[in-house]
């Protein structure tokens, strides 16, 4: 049985732990590998290695650090399909989805290649007579990243390339449910020329995370995962005087105006709701139909019903299984509650199972209509292939509904009215808004800007905000006296 190695101080080592977490194939729950729960000594070694490596890495000029990122980008592109295959096998994602997961991460590495200009400070001459002020952007030190199962390539790549390009060193604690993809990313990062100790990877669960959060040497913590864990990590990290950014759960609404292009709306909603089995923090899980647009719900349900779950290498599969039996149980329980609480189940995927793979974590596409705000399927993040449809009479009602929701990760509006789109983008209390774009994930020269219960912190992931998160600004106020210049014979008076 493959034991997932740790990466400490440039070496891929076999953990001395006696506690393991099983990594399984979600299609049938067969065992793929075992992830060790790193020992206290291994955690301490990772911190010591990162601390030591920081002393020399911070002195490496920005263009040289950028060159490591350039080599890394090339290696990631060369191994794109191989990484996507590992990713598909341990998550169950279709190969097309897995390729997208890797590609969105590569784009962040491309952002990290620009670190030289991103780390330029500001200057102002003569802020007082003969005095100039200028600022430098300097790295923080050792940073920690804790990542979820659902994007095992993209989300680690949101974090360590930018942190390291800024001159920091990094400890990654990837999800214990799919650690093989992040290990491949780490292997390629070492091949790209990263000095030892600059990136370290530790495995385990809550115990390992909590020990790292208590480490005084760790200056900043980036987390992506569920709401309760995000709140716990934000509180613990900040109590321990660390900088923290915690990206959490979501309930994303799409508002459909009756003047929208029906074909575009329906096709977009299918992929945005049940694609990747709904295990995306930007999945559309609530469709809000305004006025007569509600007449489209039966047609949407028929399109979603036609989506077939399947194996990762089946090109006709619309999506794969859920990550674990626990995730499946949670989704099935919510579907059941939806029925009991009076929602109309137009498409019921709770009985679905793939022939030959009955032991897997399968749930078929599911659509509810007549959903209201009191229902569990509306209040909770389902994180499964389940779409809730609601109907309101006006755009104002739709905006009020979305704004009452405690989450604020992403939202979209479908309309042909510039006025309606403008009103929506201005009034909606959600950090990422799509206009006729169902899943508005910003590219890495912007930042990933969830709001409300979808994010705890102030500086967001990637883009300029991540550079600020992973750095300190040092401001210098300088005065040099003319007399000194003249005493040094540099007044220029005698020069031709
Ligand atoms: P999770 O919260 O269960 O786990 C995330 C990480 O935290 C893992 O590395 C895990 O080992 C660690 N962890 C779990 N319990 C812990 C505890 N008690 N103390 C300390 N560490 C702990 O999340 P998940 O199930 O892997 O991922 C799915 C969740 O992530 C969903 O809620 C989804 O919305 C969210 N997510 C959010 C974003 C975003 O950008 N907002 C992106 C992707 C996923």
TrEMBL record:
GO terms for biological process: L-valine catabolic process; thymine catabolic process. The keyword NAD applies. Its EC number is 1.2.1.27. It comes from the Bacteria. CDD domains: ALDH_F6_MMSDH. Belongs to the aldehyde dehydrogenase family. GO terms for molecular function: methylmalonate-semialdehyde dehydrogenase (acylating, NAD) activity. This is methylmalonate-semialdehyde dehydrogenase (CoA acylating). Residues 13-476 form the Aldehyde dehydrogenase domain. InterPro entries: Ald_DH/histidinol_DH (IPR016161), Ald_DH_C (IPR016163), Ald_DH_CS_CYS (IPR016160), Ald_DH_N (IPR016162), Aldehyde_DH_dom (IPR015590), MeMal-semiAld_DH (IPR010061). The keyword NAD applies. It comes from Paraglaciecola hydrolytica. Keywords: NAD, Oxidoreductase. PANTHER family: MALONATE-SEMIALDEHYDE DEHYDROGENASE (PTHR43866), METHYLMALONATE-SEMIALDEHYDE DEHYDROGENASE [ACYLATING], MITOCHONDRIAL (PTHR43866:SF3).
């Amino acid at each position: 049985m493959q034991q997932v190695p740790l990466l400490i101080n440039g070496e891929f080592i076999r953990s001395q732990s006696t506690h393991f977490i099983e990594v399984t194939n979600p299609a049938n729950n067969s065992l793929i590998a075992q992830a060790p729960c790193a020992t206290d000594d291994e955690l301490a070694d990772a911190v010591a290695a990162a601390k030591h490596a920081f002393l020399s890495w911070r002195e490496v000029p920005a263009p040289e650090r950028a060159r490591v990122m350039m080599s890394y980008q090339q290696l990631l592109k060369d191994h794109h399909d191989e990484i996507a295959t590992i990713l598909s096998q341990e998550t169950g994602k279709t190969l097309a989805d897995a390729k997208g997961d890797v590609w969105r991460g590569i784009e962040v590495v491309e952002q990290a290649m620009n670190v030289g200009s991103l780390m330029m400070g500001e200057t102002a001459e003569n802020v007082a007579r003969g005095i100039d002020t200028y600022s430098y952007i300097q790295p923080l030190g050792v940073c920690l990243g804790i990542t979820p199962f659902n994007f095992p390539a993209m989300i680690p790549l949101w974090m360590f390339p930018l942190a390291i390009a800024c001159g920091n060193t990094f400890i990654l604690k990837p999800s214990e449910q799919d650690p093989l993809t992040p290990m491949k990313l780490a292997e390629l990062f070492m091949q790209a020329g990263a000095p030892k100790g600059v990136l370290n990877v530790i495995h385990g669960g809550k115990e390992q995370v909590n020990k790292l959060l208590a480490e005084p040497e760790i200056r900043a913590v980036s987390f992506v995962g569920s709401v309760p864990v995000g709140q716990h990590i934000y509180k613990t990290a900040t109590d321990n005087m660390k900088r923290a950014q915690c990206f959490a759960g979501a309930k994303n609404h799409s508002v459909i105006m009756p003047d929208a292009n029906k074909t575009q709306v329906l096709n977009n909603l299918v992929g945005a709701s049940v694609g990747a089995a709904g295990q995306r923090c930007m999945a559309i899980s609530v469709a809000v139909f305004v006025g007569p647009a509600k007449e489209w719900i039966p047609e949407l349900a028929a399109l979603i019903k036609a989506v077939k779950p399947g194996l990762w290498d089946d090109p006709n599969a619309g999506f794969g299984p859920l990550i674990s039996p626990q995730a499946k149980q949670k989704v099935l329980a919510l579907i059941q509650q939806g029925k009991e609480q009076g929602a109309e189940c137009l498409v019921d995927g709770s009985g679905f199972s793939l022939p030959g793979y009955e032991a897997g974590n399968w749930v078929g596409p599911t659509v509810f209509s007549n959903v209201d705000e009191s229902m569990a399927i509306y209040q909770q993040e389902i994180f499964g292939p389940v779409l809730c449809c609601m109907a309101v009479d006006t755009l104002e009602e739709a905006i009020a509904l979305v704004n009452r929701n405690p989450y604020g990760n992403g939202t979209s509006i479908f309309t042909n009215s510039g006025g309606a789109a403008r009103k929506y983008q201005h009034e909606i209390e959600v950090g990422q808004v799509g206009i006729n774009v169902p899943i508005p994930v910003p590219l890495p020269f912007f930042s990933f800007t969830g709001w409300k219960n979808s994010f705890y912190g102030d500086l967001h992931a990637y883009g300029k905000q991540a550079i600020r998160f992973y750095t300190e600004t040092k401001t210098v106020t300088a005065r040099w006296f003319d007399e000194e210049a003249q005493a040094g014979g540099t007044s220029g008076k005698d020069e031709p």
